[in-house]
Amino acid sequence: MGAKIEAKEVTKRFGEHIALSTLTLEIAPGEVFGIIGPNGAGKTTFLRILTGYWLPSTGDVFVDGTSVVHDRFAVQRRLGYVCEQPKLYHDHGVRTFLRLMGELRGLKRDALDEAVERAIVRFGLQEVQRRRIGVLSKGFRQRVSLAQALLHDPPLLVIDEPTVGLDPRQQIELRRMIQSLGSRHTVLLCTHQLLEAEVCCDRVALLDRGKLVQIATAEEVRSGGSLEELFLAQTHQPEERQ
Question: Which fold has domain 1-78+158-242?
Fold first, then answer.
């Protein structure tokens, strides 16, 4: 299960600035894959290209062989997206919101009812399903965001900075949920939190100044030192050059 992702020589330019430079990588179906790097590394640029929000200047990204450049709407139908600041309707109840999002994704009748029930149970939303989203804690809002992204059971889930602003317990709970999504879905996790990448991901790609520096498996990270050491050793640190 899950989608196969292939990025081939992906470059994104903004005038003279190169935000992403000839990025090539492959993500296996069912893999939880992390993207890390300092600010300006190209993480968000890659996510926006993968999700079809931006097109690359050169190169292409394929989701199960479908090109983002040539058929980005087909790619978008195959993914769910969870952003750092969830785009939710705060005046809607949780269940009402999930039904609305399911309808927008083409779910109808029994399929819609089943998808909403499954999402509520899967993400532990039973106790808040009748509450307005605006009164929920950020932890529950993130759960709602995950739930809406998976209503149509997409093979690819893209998650951007999911635990920012959560307390330690909420972070642990959300990380466990993300880990549980692997195998059934391919998960692409973009995060600034090194522990999060080390705990959740099967492999991690380190970007710096728009370029791929290294890809490490979880086993390599654990046997060769912490991800923090890899990050500090490989990324650009201008303060040390002054």
Answer: Rossmann fold (3.40.50)
